[in-house]
Amino acid sequence: MKIRQRLALRFTIVSALVTGAILIIIYFFTRGFVHSDFVDRLTQQSSLEVLHYATPQVKDIMPSGTFNLVNPSTSIFSETGELLHRQGDFIVPKTWITFLRDNDLFNAERGVYTTVGRKHVVNGHLYLVFVSDKDLPGERELIFLLKATVVGWAISLVLSYLTGLYFSGNALQPVKRVVQEVNHITHDNLSYRLKIDKEESAIDEIDELILTFNALLTRIERAFITQRRFVQNASHELKTPLTAIMAEVELALTRERPSEEYQRTLQVVLQETERLASTTQGLLLLARLEESASKAELDSLDVAELLDRTLAAFSMHHPERPVIKEGKTSSLYIQGNAQLLQTALLNILDNAYKYSSDKINVSLATNEKEVIIAVQDYGIGIPASELNRIRSPLFRASNVSSIPGAGLGLSLVDRIILVNHGRFEITSEEGKGTKCVIRLPLLL
């Protein structure tokens, strides 16, 4: 059973219970009113009957059928219980007479008859008057009311179910629209997002579902893009060194060669293997960062100590290149991942080493909210037209084609700084050098 039908059925059940309860209450209230009205008319008839008996001239003024009774039976007794007048077939039991002599009012039901007994004083004489009758009009009205109630209740059930179907269909219309839109989403258009044409204050549960689904699509799209980008990057970057290795090895195997040529071949294979390993490591790290950026463990760490440790590691591998450190030396604490930040700093320093031959300036500064690390080299720089693309994976500037590299360093830096909730800025002037600035929020 579909949701629409379940909602309609539940609405019908609730409506049936509520409507049924209301109709039952109405029926019993009406029944009580009809009976009470009949008793009042019998009481009035008793007053009329005693007047007709004790004062005959009243018949000309008030005829017997004044109170819409069908065939009343009347019994009038004296104060001592002696029968003075009887009209009709109903016989009043003696116990009723005895009861009325001791009380002012008497009401009783016997079979289909309703009997009212009252004391009346006329011309100084006390009379005990009993009037009995069948409330045939009232019974017919109640039977008609009962049938109308049952039929009306049955009709209300049908209308409730149809109304429930209609309104549940309208309520679920946005869900149908969402289903139709979702069916159009494939791996080729994961960038598509379900639309919400409402103000933020008017968002309902369906819109919250749409927002949640859009967030899920964003995560799925990011995963697809990461996987696709990794495959594309790997196939593009790994192909070149593998091809070079295969070509050198095949060339060396075509004939016997001097040992010097074998050494040259092995040297090329080693260089291409190192390039292949570096590229693979960079691609894997970039993929991991894009896949699990939110899961990176951030700890409290001292930036000054991290920078000193990184510069020491860089100088150990490149002792010939002078690195000048300036600025703060005291402890500056941030919330970050030490291993990732050291990788980012080493990538910037390696770029400065590869693309310049002069000194490298490193400065550490702070403002009210941030720690600022700047690395300045005085090398070939980056063309202004390519500066906005330099962070893209595998992109290399047009003036570095003769220098080995994979174009992954700054992409990794940018992603690492983003994972650590910081900002990465690059300014450069071709032929004069490049300045990379890392801004990380201070731990307050």
From TrEMBL:
Keyword list, A-Z: Kinase, Membrane, Phosphoprotein, Transferase, Transmembrane, Transmembrane helix, Two-component regulatory system
Q: Residue span of the signal peptide, if any?
A: none
* Parts of the chain that traverse the membrane: 7-29
**The organism's place on the tree of life at top rank:** Bacteria
Which residue numbers delimit the Histidine kinase domain?
233-444
Chief localisation class: membrane
Please state the Enzyme Commission number of this protein.
2.7.13.3
SMART domains for the chain: HAMP, HATPase_c, HisKA
Q: Where in the cell is it found?
A: Membrane
Q: What is this protein called?
A: histidine kinase
Source species of the chain? Ohtaekwangia kribbensis
Q: What is the lineage of its organism?
A: Bacteria, Pseudomonadati, Bacteroidota, Cytophagia, Cytophagales
